[in-house]
Design a protein that fits this description.
Length: 192
């Protein structure tokens, strides 16, 4: 039996989980000739206790035996749990995570299993919670924004390849600045 490894993302954290691949496959792909097959893993094949046996746990394409393109994972009730783009068996490209009601909780981009580019997270009511930007190796870089659940900006942090740089500004729920802390290459500057 062949085992594929894939990330199980929960609130943006990718954890590796191995499950035996015994899914159903069909047909060849248009762009990749006969090397691509559609694959569906049913609940009974997922190894997840309590998942309905005949329900689709996840589905996507295999190219030369590796995950390729968008893979969709579902909840036991059939609602979408995640959509992750793969290349050569690894997350590479856009992804989205959904809550139990089908609302987007997080959307971003993975390159070599690390977040790159922009990452957005949302409160359950759909209001923006965070906007992070990452460099090409997965370190936060540029302006990072945090929001209150009423949509008001809560904090702005500038990062340079993973280290705080400049002022970290915090605001209350009305937008009033309540604190300002200065950093240089990740180290808090002494107040003068």
């Amino acid at each position: 039996m062949r085992t594929l490894k894939f990330p199980l993302a929960l609130l943006g954290l990718a954890a590796l989980l191995s499950i035996p691949f015994t899914g159903h496959t069909s047909g060849g792909g248009d762009d990749d000739d006969d090397r691509s097959v559609y694959t569906a893993v049913l609940g009974i094949e997922s190894g997840i206790e309590g998942f309905p046996a005949d329900a689709i746990f996840e589905e996507g394409a295999l190219l030369d035996g590796e995950r390729h393109g968008v893979w969709s994972r579902f909840r036991a009730d059939g609602a979408m749990r995640s959509q992750v783009t793969y290349e050569a068996g690894r997350p590479n490209g856009p992804y989205s995570l959904y809550d139990k009601l089908g609302n987007v909780m997080e959307e971003g981009n993975w390159t070599r299993s690390a977040n790159t580019g922009e990452l957005r997270r949302y409160f359950p009511n759909g209001t923006l919670r965070q906007i992070f930007t990452f460099d090409n190796i997965g370190k936060r870089h540029g302006e990072q924004r945090y929001y209150h659940d009423n949509g008001q900006l809560e904090m702005v942090v500038n990062m340079t390849h993973g280290a705080e740089e400049g002022d970290v500004v915090r605001m209350d729920r009305t937008g009033r600045v309540i604190s300002r802390t200065s950093f240089r290459t990740g180290i808090r500057k002494a107040k003068s």
